[in-house]
Amino acid sequence: MEFLTTLWAQFLSTLPLFMLILLGFLAVKLGRWQKTVTDSLTKFTFYIAFPIMLFQIMSHFSEHSQIDIKLLFVFFGGSFIVFAIGCLIASKIFKLNGSESTIFAMGSIYTNTVFVGIPIIKMLLGDDAIPIVAIVVIFNALILWTLATVSIEFVQMGKFSTKGIVKAFKNVSKNPIIIGIFTGIVVNFIGLPLPNFIDKSTKMVSEMTAPLSLIVLGMGLAEYKIRDKLLITTAICALKLTVLPVVTYIVGKLIGLPSLELQVVVLLSSVSIAINCYMMARQFEVLQGPIASSLLISTTLSSITTPLILSIMLQLPFA
């Protein structure tokens, strides 16, 4: 009964977030808004709102408790393990080729850390957890894009070059979210006090960013459809929403990650697949249908699985 009470409380906590996603989805589906509206709002959120929010938080980085950097080994260690499992399932069970197996496995681990992860973490664990998410965000795109590029180069040519790695570094260095994080860190460690009008303005933007990002995500999801190869889609969602958070939790406990960091990385690993994964599938021209379907299905299912996973973590005797 205590577990069910906790689960219901966590579900009610996250329900408003997914209602905002539904609001954005219905606005496009029922309102028949042009794609340019979604594109413009997405561009504003990604290039302006999120960088300002992360700058504002990271400029006060020293006010938060010290973060255990082992969280990177836990988050990406769990991702690499599930990536290997995904490649094995794709090749042995679904008989996919090397490039398809790579994208299948990427769908199993590529977390929507920005548009979904940050709002959920902010809602469930508070502002103290956001700097932890920011550290993951810094490395997430770089490591996963490099992993996909190197893996596909290897299966296509039997070798890999440094070209893909250099390209990934260049893309990440120009990412506005990464720029916002690093700028905030620099301001914090220099000890440069922000003028009050700047601090308040950035805080106002910060408060609107999370709900705006969820509405924009829902608008973006309205562009995708559930297509063929649903068995592959089901396998991707199962690995992403259940296997990845379980593996991440086990790795975190083995390494001895502190409670807050452990909750953050497990919750991050439990949320839906990132839209970037679909862009990756389009770039390499493989599994575009299943990945698009996985975006819709994983976002819907995570409204149940993410609060369930948090409730289970809170009830474990050694949590």
TL;DR of this structure?
The chain is an all-alpha fold and 319 residues long. The chain has helices spanning 2-31, 35-58, 70-92, 98-109, 113-125, 130-157, 163-173, 176-190, 196-221, 230-255, 259-270, 275-284, 288-315.
Description of the structure:
With 319 residues, this protein is an all-alpha fold. 81% of the residues lie in helices and 0% in strands. The chain has 13 helices and no strands. The longest helix is centred in the first third of the chain and has 30 residues, at 2-31. The protein is globular, with a radius of gyration of 19 Å.
Order of helices and strands: HHHHHHHHHHHHH
Could you tell me the strand content as a percent range?
under 5%
The helical percent reads over 70%
Per the principal axes of the C-alpha atoms, what is the gross shape? globular
Q: Total strand count, please?
A: 0
Q: Residue-averaged pLDDT, rounded?
A: 82
Instruction: Quickly give the structural class.
Output: mainly alpha
Q: How far apart, in Å, are the first and last alpha carbons?
A: 19 Å
Unreliable runs: none
Largest sheet: none
Radius of gyration: 19 Å
| Annotation field: number of helices | 13
Oligomer: single chain
Question: What topology emerges from the helices and strands here?
Answer:
Blueprint: H1 2-31, H2 35-58, H3 70-92, H4 98-109, H5 113-125, H6 130-157, H7 163-173, H8 176-190, H9 196-221, H10 230-255, H11 259-270, H12 275-284, H13 288-315
Helix pairs in contact: 1-5, 1-9, 1-13, 2-8, 2-9, 3-4, 3-6, 3-10, 3-11, 4-6, 4-10, 4-12, 5-6, 5-9, 5-11, 6-7, 10-11, 10-13, 11-13, 12-13
